[in-house]
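Re: your question from the hallway

Yes, I did run it. Sequences:
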Amino acid sequence: MATIYDMAVIGGGPGGYSAALYAVRAGLRVVVLEKLCPGGQMALTSQVDNYPGFDQGIDGFTLGENMRRGAERFGAETVLAEVLRCDLTAVPKRIETSGGTFFAKTLVYAAGAVPRELGVPGEAAFAAKGVHYCASCDGMFYKGKDVMVVGGGNSAVEDALVLSRIADRVTLIHRRDTLRAEKISVKALESQKNVDFCWNSNVTALRSMENRVAVALQNGITGEETERITDGVFVSIGRKPATELVKGQLMLDPAGYLPADESTRTQIPGVFAVGDVRTKAVRQIVTAAADGAAAAHFAQEYLAGKD
Amino acid sequence: MKEWNRAQFEREIQGDKPVLVDFWAPWCGHCRRIAPALESIEAEMGQSCILAKLNIDAEPEIARQENITVLPTLILYRAGQRLGSITAPDAKAKIEDFLRQALGR
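Structure:
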């Protein structure tokens, strides 16, 4: 007879492990299904300074490991496995993974978000070989080289700043003529002598050219088409929610997020949307953690038959 | 997981047992993220496959020789031959699938 958990958590980021921590402390039997490593997107952040309680900041990987250990101290289990399918309305809920099938009475969906791709021809062929989605991960390969950053938000400006200290030349390509990023980072970037800006430009295609990347650009105002050659392209145009797994079972908003209020309850009883996958105004580590606590609370209500 | 230097790498990949080498660097965030998965795979594979790490900052010639352009890169060797490679896997299952295919199991 397979184990039936009180709660299965899909995704071992701050939302998932907060739900697990609160649930195990309330006496529930909990398994966290994580495809790679605790921490989620946070694990790629070298310095987290906006999660309270760490006066010197903390690196995201360590914070993720600490969250895992904190939940496991009270009995949460972690399984490193990729979820392939889940049946949210089955009783108990059924989750098929690369590491076997799991059953649980409640399900916390905290799968997070992944970098958004440009979606242009040639992009896939370059994946991780000329086109990158994480400057702090792959930037070091471009020491003394020429790179481009695509995007105009906070993460694009941060990425361009990181790269300006490594690469010889950085060009920020943005489809508008102003940046959405916070002023303090924009100022820092503008003061870098090796950074250029290429405004009103959309990337339309990527192709290989003598071991470099040829980036086809179209001016959004004049329609003029040009091509620029660079050593590497860093795409930083935001994230998309990892909601493919529950598509068709749960309603998605137009951007692909799961509409749920602060209770994190979805339209399927016993299923909760936590962290970056949920429709919300502010997506931060601390708001994901808050969702986890709420989900654990309402999961207990559901299990007690009050929901 | 064991950490190899150049001499160990060149000797160990010649063996009859498959060897999965994790090319990493201390500054690579994603490399840290795959470490828990690799440790668990190492425990699950037992004696059937050797897993080891190679720091490309410490051994830049090997990185050039093996044409490492992305971190982390995992390369599977047997008897001195390269059986296959996978770069920046985003799930433990991707590494397991890669090993299954490359080893023909």
